[in-house]
Amino acid sequence: MNLIEQQPHFWELYQNHDQYYLSIAVDMSSVVSCWDIRLKDDVAEHYKNKGRIAIEELADRIVKESYCGDFSLLEQFSASPEDKQAMQQAFMLWKKG
Question: Organism's domain of life (predicted)?
């Protein structure tokens, strides 16, 4: 698992072989809600074709849906506990430089 893209204090994109994961922090004014999701294959392909802009668009969509109380995308594609742990380890390695 490797951290491959990020928008500081908003989202991080991770890659583990052919699978992509997004860690996103949604600021709801009084609380920040953090989610780790596994990207669907079509979203991963969109990223491969369009690059960072595809993740920015996805992050904006997630924020808009969250403000409307719709967390279904986040809940449906929640990363497994093992993947979440691997993401945290990758972040710590990246942070060490």
Answer: Bacteria
User: pTM of the full predicted structure?
Assistant: 0.92
Q: Using CA atoms, how far apart are residues 94 and 4, in angstroms rounded to an integer?
A: 9
The tokens describing 9, both together, are: 């204090």
Contact present, 16 and 28 (Cβ < 8 Å): no
In our burial notation (b when 16+ CB lie closer than 10 A, e otherwise), range 28-64 reads eeeeeeebbbbbeeebbebbeeeeeebbeebbeebbe
Amino acid at 80: S
Instruction: Give per-residue pLDDT as tens, 19-66.
Output: 999 999 999 888 899 999 999 999 999 999 999 999 999 999 999 999
Element (H, E) at 76: helix 72-76
Domain ranges, ordered by start, for the chain: 2-80
Rounded Cα gap, residues 29 and 43, in angstroms: 28
